[in-house]
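From the methods appendix. Each design record in this collection lists the discretized structure first, followed by the designed amino acid sequence. Records were kept in a plain field format so they could be parsed without special tools. The example shown here is representative of the layout used throughout.

RECORD:
C-ALPHA CELLS (355 positions):
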C-alpha cells in the first residue's frame, strides 16, 4: 500500500475518534451526569466515586422478588427462568447508578460489595459472566420491561429513555444477593452490574456506552402501616343501595395465597352484620387483584380469595352459603391505574355486589 495512503488513513481514523465523541447529544449527557430528582444514596451504602443516580424508586412498604440462583434457558426461549427466587417485604429502594467511563464492571461491583461487607452483609448468592446463565440479562432488566425500570415521578423523557437504554446491551455482567440479619428481620441488597456496549436506543445508548451501570436493590425490614378503615355494616347497606356494591380493603391475605389473615376479622364481622340485617339480600363476593403477573394466575388467585371470604362468612358467622356466590375478577375491573403502587394497592380489594 502507498505510504501516503497509509498516513492519510491513520490521520482520518484519529480524527474520527474525537468526532464520534463530540457527536454525543449534549442534553442527554447533561441529564445523565446529574442525580435524578429527589434521589439520594442508601444509608446502607455510599456510591462509587464519580457516579450519578440515573433513576430511583422508593416504596415505604412493598415486596420485591430477588434473584437467588442462575438463569436457565436461551435468551430467546419462552421457558427461560431463574432457578431460584426469593420474595422479601419491607421498605424497597431500587437505584440505578451510571459510573464514570473506562471503569471495569469488576471494579465498580467489588466496591459496592466491599462496602456492604464492611457493614455486616454476607453473600447469599453470587455469579459472574457466563456462570449467571445466558438469559440472565434478559430476565433481569429489559428495555421493554417497565417493572424493571426505577423511574420516579415526573422524570423528564430524556432520563426515562436513558434508564431504558442503560442495560440494553452489557458485557461482563456481575450479580450478588447480600443479606444481613438483625433483631428487626433480614435486610437484603442485590447488586447487578455490567458494562454498557451500546444498544438499540440511538443517541441514548451512545451516552451510556463504555460506562458501568449498577442496579442496587434494597429491602429493609419495616412493618406495614395498616391504614385501611373497616367499613361499618350500615355503610355497607347504604353503598349496596346506592351503587349496588360495597368495596373492602380491610380483608388481608398472606402473600400470593388465599389464606385470610386474623386482622381481617373486624371487616368480616361488619359484612356479616350487614347480611343479617338484610335477610333477603343475596350477593356476589368478588375478588380483585392488580395487573402484576399473568392474567390466568390472577384470575385463579382472586377466585380462591373470594371463595375464602364466602366460606368464612358461612362457617364463622352463620351466613347461609346459598346467599353468596364467589367470583374472581383478577385485574379486569381496576379502580385506578396499575402504573404505580398507589394505584395497584387500590385495585387489590374485595367487593360485595348485589345480585
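DESIGN:
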Amino acid at each position: 500500500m502507498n505510504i501516503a495512503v497509509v498516513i492519510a488513513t491513520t490521520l482520518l481514523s484519529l480524527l474520527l475518534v474525537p468526532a464520534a465523541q463530540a457527536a454525543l447529544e449534549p442534553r442527554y449527557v447533561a441529564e445523565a451526569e446529574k442525580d435524578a430528582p429527589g434521589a439520594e444514596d442508601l444509608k446502607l451504602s455510599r456510591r462509587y466515586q464519580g457516579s450519578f443516580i440515573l433513576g430511583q424508586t422508593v416504596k415505604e412498604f412493598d415486596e420485591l422478588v430477588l434473584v437467588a440462583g442462575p438463569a436457565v434457558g436461551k435468551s430467546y426461549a419462552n421457558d427461560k427462568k431463574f432457578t431460584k427466587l426469593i420474595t422479601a417485604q419491607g421498605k424497597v429502594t431500587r437505584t440505578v447508578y451510571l459510573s464514570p467511563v473506562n471503569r471495569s464492571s469488576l471494579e465498580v461491583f467489588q466496591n459496592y460489595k466491599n462496602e456492604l461487607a464492611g457493614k455486616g452483609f454476607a453473600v447469599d448468592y453470587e455469579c459472574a459472566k457466563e456462570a449467571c446463565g445466558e438469559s440472565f440479562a434478559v430476565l433481569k432488566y429489559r428495555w421493554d420491561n417497565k417493572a424493571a425500570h426505577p423511574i420516579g415521578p415526573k422524570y423528564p423523557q430524556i432520563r426515562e429513555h436513558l434508564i431504558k437504554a442503560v442495560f440494553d446491551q452489557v458485557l461482563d455482567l456481575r450479580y450478588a444477593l447480600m443479606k444481613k440479619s438483625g433483631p428487626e428481620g433480614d435486610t437484603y441488597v442485590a447488586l447487578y452490574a455490567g458494562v454498557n456496549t451500546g444498544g438499540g436506543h440511538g443517541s441514548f445508548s451512545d451516552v451510556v456506552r463504555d460506562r458501568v451501570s449498577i442496579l442496587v436493590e434494597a429491602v429493609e425490614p419495616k412493618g406495614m402501616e395498616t391504614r385501611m378503615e373497616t367499613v361499618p355494616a350500615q355503610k355497607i347497606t347504604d353503598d349496596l343501595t346506592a351503587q349496588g356494591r360495597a368495596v373492602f380493603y380491610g380483608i388481608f391475605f398472606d402473600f400470593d395465597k388465599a389464606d385470610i389473615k386474623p386482622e381481617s376479622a373486624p371487616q368480616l364481622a361488619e359484612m356479616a352484620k350487614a347480611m343479617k340485617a338484610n335477610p333477603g339480600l343475596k350477593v356476589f363476593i368478588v375478588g380483585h387483584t392488580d395487573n402484576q403477573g399473568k392474567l390466568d394466575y390472577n384470575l385463579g388467585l382472586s377466585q380462591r380469595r373470594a371463595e375464602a371470604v364466602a366460606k368464612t362468612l358461612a362457617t364463622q358467622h352463620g351466613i347461609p352459603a346459598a346467599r353468596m356466590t364467589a367470583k374472581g375478577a383478577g385485574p379486569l375491573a381496576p379502580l385506578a391505574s396499575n402504573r404505580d403502587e398507589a394505584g395497584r394497592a387500590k385495585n387489590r380489594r374485595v367487593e360485595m355486589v348485589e345480585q
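APPENDIX NOTE: The CA atoms of residues 50 and 234 lie 60 Å apart.
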